[in-house]
Amino acid sequence: LSPAKRTAAGIALAKPTETSLVSEVPAFGRVLDLAPLVTLAGEVEIARTAQAASEKEMDRAKKMFAAGGNASAQTVETAEANAARDRAVLASAQARLAANWGREIAGKLESLTQAFAGGAALARLDLLPGEMPDPAAKTAHLNLPGAAGVIDADVIGRAPTADPQMPGASFLVLVRGHPLPAGAALRGTLPGTGATTTGLVVPRSAIVYHQGSAWAFVLGEEDTFERKLVSLGRSVGDDTVAVTQGLEADEHVVTAGAQQLLAAELQAGGAPEE
Fold first, then answer.
1. Beta bridge pairs of residue 202
2. CA 64 from chain center: how many Å?
3. For residues 128 and 189, what is the distance between their CA atoms, to the nearest angstrom?
4. CB 241 within 8 A of CB 274
5. Closest residue by Cα to residue 28 from 105, 162, 123, 151
6. Closest CA to 62 of 50, 52, 73, 53
7. Is 30:124 a contact under the CB 8 Å cutoff?
8. Measured distance CA(52)–CA(55) in Å, rounded
9. How far, in Å, CA of 64 to CA of 55, rounded?
């Protein structure tokens, strides 16, 4: 295709962009059902309120008894027993919360409950065996399979239970500003511990898929186009993706109209038998 014909067909070219890629580890997970957590949080709050009230009643009874007031020794004993019971109920609820959801959730329960009331979601991310993120990781990058765009999530901490089907490390993350349904599948990345590398990045529109593989068209000699097999890395921003193999930095890649070229190639019967 001559430059004039490329312009008429809406085909645009650009060189891949070189950028620094921070080490990341892949993760797979799902949005969790908040109902059990919210119910348990309510039990903790009710138990805390009851315990505070019984402690005040016990203190009042002791002061009245010491001052020779109307409180008897039996009243003080009853108040102490009620306070002890309510302390045990609160400790039990807090222990169940920590066992089921982790100490990080238990320690941030009030702020998390407010976030959930504002529409935030809680997700669990599972890593492959042997993978481990940066211990200081604060943010995870998520995306829904088949959907464009990257969602940032706050890393809360390690999940308290392991997934028998994904026996690697697991983490809980808080997703704000995105109403995700419970059970929704997620893909994501967490910051890794490896060194920062330099890689090539192209727009997602430059990538076409054929027979289960990713391809990109590059400008060759005499205004011809060549379809090259590429290996993709992680998403970089909302509309670009890293290419780990298959492209050179000085090549002109089709960034608009790649799907048209693929359709024309297949129609002409020129597709290779990969």
1. 241
2. 55
3. 11
4. no
5. 123
6. 73
7. yes
8. 5
9. 14
Sequence-ordered list of residues with C-beta below 8 angstroms from that of 50, at least 6 positions apart, any chain: 86, 89, 90
DSSP secondary structure of 84-131: HHHHHHHHHHHHHHHHHH-HHHHHTHHHHHHHHHTT-EEEEEEEPTT-
Strands (E), the chain: 12-14, 17-21, 24-31, 121-127, 139-143, 151-158, 170-175, 185-191, 197-203, 208-210, 213-219, 225-236, 240-245, 253-256
Per the confidence metrics, is the pTM higher than 0.70? no
Task: Identify which of 105, 127, 126, 109 has the alpha carbon closest to the alpha carbon of residue 117.
Answer: 109
DSSP string over 156-177:
EEE-SS-BTTB-S-EEEEEE-S
Q: Are 49 and 90 in contact (CB under 8 A)?
A: no
| 199 contacts 243 by C-beta, under 8 angstroms | yes
- Is the alpha carbon torsion for 70, 76, 81, 86 positive or negative? positive
Tokens (6 digits) for 94? 């807090």
Tens of pLDDT along the chain (274 residues)? Answer: 888 888 888 899 999 988 877 778 888 889 999 999 999 999 999 999 999 999 999 999 999 888 877 778 899 999 999 999 999 999 999 999 999 999 999 999 999 999 999 999 999 999 988 888 888 889 998 887 766 677 899 999 999 887 777 778 899 999 998 888 999 999 888 888 876 777 899 998 999 998 888 999 999 888 899 999 998 877 776 678 888 889 999 999 999 999 999 988 888 775 555 5
Tokens of 249: 């930095």
